[in-house]
Amino acid sequence: MCGIHGIYRFDGLSVEPGILSAMGERTRHRGPDDEGSHLDGPCGIAMRRLSIIDLAGGHQPLSNADGSLWLVCNGEIYNYRELRRELQDKGYHFKTGSDCEVLIHLYDDEGDAFIQRLNGMFDFALWDARRHRLLIGRDRLGVKPLYVLHDWQRLAFASEAKALLALPGISAELDRGVLADYLHLGYVAAPGCIFKGIRKLPPATLLAVEAGQVREWRYWRLPDRCAPGVSESEWCDRVRLQLDESVRMQMVSDVPIGAFLSGGVDSSAVVGLMARHSEQPAIPSSRSGPTPSVLPAARPRHCTTSSPMPAGWPNSLPPSTARSLSARMWFRCCRSSCGTWTNHCPIPPSSPPSSSPSSRARMSR
Fold it and tell me: What homologous superfamily does CATH list for 3-218?
């Protein structure tokens, strides 16, 4: 989880570094490992980084060889290795091992159509100094958040809405038009935002600012029809293959990989596939046993969580029913089958995670 933010001024004045710094302070928790910025006249882009791939060399913003393209990107590009080889064959030279660097050269090679080639979860901002053009975008399903503020003076963006509240003249005013949605759904769907004047960039959307003009468009839509004539067994095979390939592609990391394991079908399937694609041998251990001092980076580490039930709840059910509803039994079965090490993290009712000031601050977006 990283964080990006930036500003494009319509009045032609230069972006003040202090404003970018103030925005970054609001999202420091998203990127404790590194920070960086690039300012070029009316445009400034910045980054708070949590290092996952190329820990030492993946500093952002990233640029091309002549410094005409600058990029900040939050997320992961799962097919970056294939894209990197293709671009290298065309003569592009890479300065880092970062997965995000492929965006710069792919944009240089294909223009805005580069977005169609990406497989991943991401939001990004790319400054094209040759055209004095800012391009921001979000992944197809909107996994990574991106908020936008657009007024007569500027267009600003950030991974969290509260970073935009650091801008001069912007206050945290409630948008009553989306209040009913929030109370009904528990969140505000895109493009809405709980703060007036701020909105979410919708999933699968690009936004470009050039010559003072703002243009926004969808680059992908979910197909509204399934393939005709496909049997149920064929669909099952397709789902298995797609899920297996998705997990395999997401196992690329320079830090240990983990998963939340509840014992349900979905998380157990993901953990099982992670174990299949891991290179290290299994590390079986019990929950009460000693924690391994060294966990191989390629081996998945799984963290299980459980929330407290109402007082007396287990006693109100027959013992056999209570046991069958216990998630712990099922994630133990998964752990035994996959040969992985798990860490059980119970949540006591007296001190839920949201009670700490830092937790409340991180959830207030």
Answer: Aminohydrolase, N-terminal nucleophile (Ntn) domain (3.60.20.10)
